[in-house]
Amino acid sequence: MGGRSIVRVISAMRKSLAAVLAIAAVSISITAVIAAADPSASQASPYLISSFMGNIELRVSHSEAVDLGTYSYIPGTLFRPIPTPVNFAALKMDVSKVLSSKPDNPNIPPDTIGIGVWVRTPENMTARLVSQVGEAKFARQTFIYVDPYRNTPSYTCTTDRLWPLVNSSYGQLISVTFTAEDFESGLSCIKQSAGNLEVYGVYIYDNSHLYTEECTTASVRCTGLYGFAGMSIVSATLNGAECPVEGGTAKLSGPVSGTLTLNLEGRFFFIPYTKTVTFQL
Q1: CA 216, CA 218: separation in Å to the nearest integer?
Q2: Is 231 helix (H, G, I), strand (E, B) or coil?
């Protein structure tokens, strides 16, 4: 097949997908209007938008401030339980270590700092996500060859948010705070938002102190094609005020009531797809 033919095929695919998504957008709007007009539907599920493409369900949860303890590296230990499962979006992890000096050989990767979490989805599926500081963001699948974790999905990702600090601290003691934001590349691999995940254990590289902050979070749980696209929150406003977003989850402040507007983003194969939804809290 010639180059022009390939371009025409790709163009046709894009137009077809755009048409399907346009129809889906109209369907969502109609469904939302019907739900608002039908009191029984509204009372049954006020935070659910449905269409033939699937469901977009708003999930709002509140987390208390809890100290989960301090952990040190134990060679060969893949899993360390934490005292109580917590919402990933509320978790903070202070990690410290003395970085090795930066190698003179550019082919040798420099020392870094990181931590891993064991997470559980609402469907009771588990995975291990590891985040390390790096110059650029990426994620790759890793494999566990030790029972009973052998078949557990595992992904290692890098975060560039902390890179400037690490890059200027070789040969020194460094302390950084990891949050769900630093696992976004890994979250994309399992098509989940931090607010939908429960952390029940950790994978420790360096001395780490774990705790949760008191907060109220909003995330979306998507099914059907929306789930396939890995739709998650990229920006949010509550009554017109912008809310911070980390790991596909919005953090709400002040009285949690009024109009919550969420901008969602996902990807059908290599084609990005965005959608704006509004809920009344």
Answers
A1: 7
A2: coil
Domains of the chain: residue spans and CATH? 16-61+216-280 (no CATH), 65-213 (2.60.120)
Q: Strand order in 198-204's β-sheet?
A: 80-87, 198-204, 114-120, 126-133, 154-159, 139-142
**Under-70 pLDDT residues of the chain:** 1-46
Contacts of 95 (CB under 8 A, 6+ apart): 113, 114, 115, 175, 176, 177, 178, 205, 206, 207, 208
SS3 57: strand
Please state, in angstroms and rounded to a whole number, the distance separating the CA atoms of residues 140 and 242: 32
Instruction: Please write the tens of the pLDDT for every residue from 189-214.
Output: 999 999 999 999 999 999 999 999 99
DSSP 182: G
Are 250 and 244 within 8 A, CB to CB?
A: yes
Q: How far apart are CA 19 and CA 118, in angstroms?
A: 39
Cβ count within 10 A of residue 1: 7
Strands 126-133 and 154-159: what pairing?
Answer: parallel
The secondary structure of residue 143, as a DSSP letter, is: -
Candidates 66, 69, 65, 45; CA nearest to 56 is: 45
- Alpha-carbon Rg for the chain, nearest whole angstrom, is 21
% of the chain exceeding 70 in pLDDT? 83
> Residue 266's CB: how many other CB atoms inside 10 A?
21
How confident is the model over 129-156, as pLDDT tens digits?
A: 999 999 888 899 988 988 889 889 999 9
CB atoms within 10 A of CB 243: 20
Contact 63, 213 (CB under 8 A): yes
In whole angstroms, what is the distance from residue 60 CA to residue 266 CA?
20
